[in-house]
Amino acid sequence: MPQYMLLIYPPVDTPPPGRLSRWQQYTDNLIADGVAVTHGRLEGVDAATSVRLEHGETLVTDGPFAETKEFLGGFFLIDCPDLDAALRYAAQMPMEDYGTVEVRPMMFPAGTPAREMGTQTAA
Fold first, then answer.
1. Per-residue pLDDT tens for 35-83?
2. What's the CATH number where 99 sits?
3. Dihedral sign from CA coordinates of 20, 24, 25, 29
């Protein structure tokens, strides 16, 4: 089955509403439905470090790569039949009044060795 990344983008300047129990229930539902692969919550943008390579030199800077109104706060990787199913799971997140969920298909299933990616791309 295809895998989809559900990327969670909360607003930068707004603390998340208190809904931990709803997030726990959402996660439990993904597990019960057999679609959960993995998930994670990221530290805030103040903990980010960006690394760039410019003209052969490695540049390390504090903070995210770009300033935005929202930031990547976490993710769920799910394994489900199609995009419509992934969109239904995204719509069930307790995000109705807070931020955005981006749904993106994985090019290769998580854990695919790099040598297999090259072979599949060339085919």
1. 999 999 998 888 889 899 999 999 998 876 667 778 888 999 999 999 9
2. 3.30.70.1060
3. positive
